[in-house]
Amino acid sequence: MIRYLLLLCAFAGCGPKTIDPKIYADADQASGPDASRSAAVAIPLNRPSLPDEVNFDKKDRTDWKSVDLPGAPNLLTVLLRWDSSGSDIHVDVYNPVGEQIATSPGLLPGATEKKLLVEIQTSGVYYLRVTAAQPHDGSVYTLEPRWEGRARTAAPPTERPTEVVETPVEKPVEKPVEKPDTDKQQKLEEAIERGVQGRIVSSYPEGGATMLQLDKGTAAGVTAGQTGTILEGPSGADALAGGTFTVVKVVDTARCVAKASLRAIGKNRRVVIFTK
Length: 276
What we know:
about 10% helix, 15 strands, 5-stranded mixed beta sheet, mainly beta, Jelly Rolls
């Protein structure tokens, strides 16, 4: 009887199913021109865009948008909101030559919005790619790119005074030089050497704190509740002042989410997680 049921199940297509890669290849058949970066639709800064829709099952998986970022280097904040709480919608950021510079953060349970913070060093046209992540994902959405960059302007010329009046210059009070705590610094350096070093994939503000998407997960021994610190500079030799954080969620073998009290991390992207 059991053998008969197994044979029947095999002919009927029972058992675990895998997603055919062709499904992803065909997921943009009905997306239209804005499925490619070359036909990205321009959207305004600092206000919500007109509603649009992506839908994996309707073969309209991808939309490309463009934003013109003027002025001096600054921080670009991308806010994505969508209607369907049962779907996961992604937003990724690309620079003017098409290189991906920021990856969509993970989906929190029941969430219908994502924030993505990207440091922009050069003005120009940047691109936002919105995608329905998996089969059965789809929703109407809006994008709001927030940008406070301003063009640098030269200071106005000042007229040379006809008479120069010298005023006494007060000698600044010299502050005593604080001696470094060598024992504390040595312990910190030893902790950094023992910890797991990684990188910040993306960051965004939430509830007065800064949420960090890190590239370490269970494969590196990371668990929720562990602490760590942001490292200062490209070499990451020292801890960033006030840059401590706590791991709040481990996403998978290579990703976790941490919460830091520091409001801005600047250009610092290296971290160490104290797993021991």
